[in-house]
Design brief:
The chain is an alpha/beta fold and 115 residues long. The chain is 31% helix and 29% strand. The strands form two sheets. It has a three-stranded mixed β-sheet. A three-stranded mixed β-sheet has the order 4-5-6, with helices on one face.
């Protein structure tokens, strides 16, 4: 599981979310930004993807991050078996599993290629 993720409000501007991600990760960068609205996950995007968008279209820094989010994820727990998680990712054609702790907070993520 990769712990380098940060939760932001879905109404946050994309540029502000990247700044929060750069300041908030274990190694100085949160690699995944999770959009939350009313304590519900609304989507995710990798910070590197956003940086690439900004290089091509700088005006996207002012776009609401929720409008740029991906919605192809599954929810997992830290103790879920790899075979089951892989099957769930395949069934949803998802690239990311968001890992939730016992209280329902996102505490990390697993990419499909990590399995």
């Amino acid at each position: 599981m990769r712990p380098q993720c940060i939760a932001v409000d879905a109404a946050e501007e994309a540029g502000d979310a990247v700044q929060l991600a750069e300041a908030g990760g274990n190694d100085g960068t949160a690699h995944l930004i999770v959009m939350v609205e009313s304590h519900q996950v609304m989507g995710y995007i990798e910070s590197a993807t956003l940086t690439g968008f900004f290089a091509q279209a700088p005006f996207l820094r002012h776009e609401l991050i929720g409008n740029l989010a991906r919605t192809d994820w599954v929810v997992s727990t830290p103790n879920q078996r790899v075979e089951i998680l892989r099957r769930r990712l395949d069934d949803r054609k998802a690239k990311v599993a968001l890992v939730e702790d016992r209280s329902g907070r996102v505490c990390g993520f697993i990419r499909r290629e990590d399995l």
